[in-house]
Amino acid sequence: MADALHPGMIDRVVRDARPRLVALLAAPDGDLDAAEDAFSDAVETAMRSWPENGEPRNPEAWLFTVARNRRRDRWRADRRSTAFDEDHTSGDGRVTGALATTSVEESALEIPDRRLALLAAAAHPEVDPTARTPLMLNAVLGLSAEKIGALLLVPTATMSARLTRARKRIRAADIPFETPGIDELPGRLEAIRDAIYGAYSVDWTFSAESARDGLAGEALYLAELLCELVPDDPESHGLAALLCLSSARAAARTDINDEFVPLELQDTRRWNATLLERGEEHLRAAGTDTPPGPYRLQAAIQAVHCARRRTGATDWESIRKLHTGLHALSPTAGGAVALAVATARCDGPAAGLELLDRLGERADRFQPALAARAAMLDEAGRAAEAVTAYDRTITLTTDPAARRHLERARSCVGLTTGAGSSSTSTAPPPTGRPAAPAPPSSGMDATVQPDRERES
After folding, report:
1. Above pLDDT 90, what percent of the chain?
2. Which residue, 303, 311, 308, 239, is CA-closest to 277?
3. What CA–CA distances, in Å, run from 41 to 11, 121, 362, 406?
4. How far apart are CA 306 and CA 277, in angstroms?
5. Within a 13 Å sphere around the CA of 325, how many CA atoms are in the beta-carbon half?
6. Rounded distance between C-alpha atoms, residue 383 and residue 360, angstroms
7. Bridge partners (DSSP) listed for residue 332
8. Which residues on adjacent β-strands are paired with residue 260?
C-alpha cells in the first residue's frame, strides 16, 4: 500500500478506470449489467478498504482484481463454467492469493484495453440508433438513466427502458466485445463519432471548459478517448478538434449579465487557450493526406473562426469555401443555412437570401433559417419582412438569453440598412444594434438551435 488516501482520489480513479474495466469485465459474455455490478462491488470494497489501508500502488489493477473475482463468484453461484481466472479474493473483499502483493500491481500491465470494443458494441448496427448515444454515456461513462434522461429531455422511465432494450439486444444478438476487423472498423467508427457528436450537440450551448463537465464535457472526453484508441484515424481527430475548438469559447458566449454574445463580438481573451491548443493539435494529427470528412471540415471552419484571436478579423471567404465543401459532402439543413450566412457575409444579403430560398417550405419551420433570414432581410432594408421573420424565430427559440438577443435585434430593425452582411469587420455594429445571428454550424455560438439530423 502507498501513502494515505488523498481526498477525492477514489472518485478520480473510479471515473478514469470505469470504461476500461467495465469493457474488460463484460467481454467474456457481453453481460454489461453483470460487469457494472461487479465493478460497483469493487468500488464499494475500495471505499471501505482504502481509507483505512491507504491507496494501492496500482488502484486500477486492485479494482480489476476484485471485480473480476466478483464476476467469477457469481458465475459459480449460478453453476455456470467460469471464463475468469482462479483465486485471489477473500470473502471480505481483500485481495489474496497469487495477486495479493506485487502481482496485483503488475497485472495492470496485462489488462487488455477493451474500451474501443465497448464503444463499438454500443454503436453496433444491431443496436437501435436512438439508443447508441445513451448507451455510450451509460456503459462507458457510468451516467444513470435518470441523468441521461434529464440531459436528453427524455423521461427517466423511457430512458431506462431504452437502455434495457439495448443491453438485451447486445446479449441476444451475441454482439462480441472485440475491436471490429479492418473491413468493419471504418463504418463502426462513423457510428461512434456520430453518437458522440449527438451527445455534444444536445448541450453545445453550455459546453464546458474542461472534459467531464456536463454532457458536452462528457462528449469531449469520449472524443479524445476515441483518438487515444485509434490515433491514426484522421476523422476521429477531426471530431475531437471540432469539440475542443467549440468548447474553448464557452466562457465568452455570455457576458457578465448572462446576456448572449455572438461569436463575432466575443472577447477572444476569454477563450480557453488550452482547449484551443488541443484542438489545433488534433487538426494537425488529422493531417492532409486523405480527403477530409465532415468532422474535419467542421473543425477547419471552427479553426478559421478561432483564428480571429490572432488576426483580429474573420476570413469569411475561407469559411464559405469550407462550407461549400461540407454541404457537398454531407448536406444538412443547418449546413445549408451556414453556407447562406457565409455567402451573405461575402456577397451581401441578397445572395444569402437566394440560398435560403432553396430550402423551400422547411425554411418556414426551421429556427436557424428563420434567424438568418430575419437578419439578412433587415440588412437588405426589408424591414416589415424582417420583423415577421424575427417574430417567428423568437417563438421557436427556447434559450432565454438567445430569445432576449433576438428580441433586441427585432427592436432595432430598420435602424441601419446594408451594414454587416458583406462586412468582415468584427467591430460592433453601428448604433448598438445586435449582431446578426448565425447558425451553429458556422461557429456554434449562435442564437439558434442545433441541427442534428442529416438529410437523406
Report:
1. 35
2. 303
3. 14, 24, 52, 51
4. 11
5. 16
6. 21
7. 454
8. 254
Q: Distances from the Cα of 222 to the Cαs of 67, 339, 361, 392, in angstroms?
A: 23, 29, 37, 37
What pLDDT digit, counting tens, does each position of 254-307 carry? 999 989 999 989 999 999 999 999 999 999 999 988 999 999 999 999 999 999
Taking CA atoms, 84 is separated from 79, 100, 101, 121, 294, in Å, by: 14, 17, 19, 21, 42
Q: How many residues belong to the chain?
A: 456
Position 453, amino acid: E
Phi-psi region of 32 (alpha: psi -120 to 50; beta: other; left: phi over 0): alpha
- Residues 315 and 306: their CA atoms lie apart, in Å, by 10
Rg of the chain over Cα atoms, rounded to whole angstroms, equals 25
**pLDDT at residue 108, as a whole number:** 39
Residue with cell 434495457: 164
Q: What is the DSSP string of 418-438?
A: S-STT----SPPGGGPPPPP-
pTM of the model: 0.70
- pLDDT, position 409: 94
> Which of 437, 431, 426, 428 minimizes the C-alpha distance to 390?
437
Q: What is the CB neighbour count within 10 angstroms for residue 173?
A: 14
Span 127-138, mean pLDDT? 85
- The per-residue pLDDT for range 59-106, each reduced to its tens digit, is 888 888 899 888 888 877 765 555 554 444 443 444 443 333 333 333
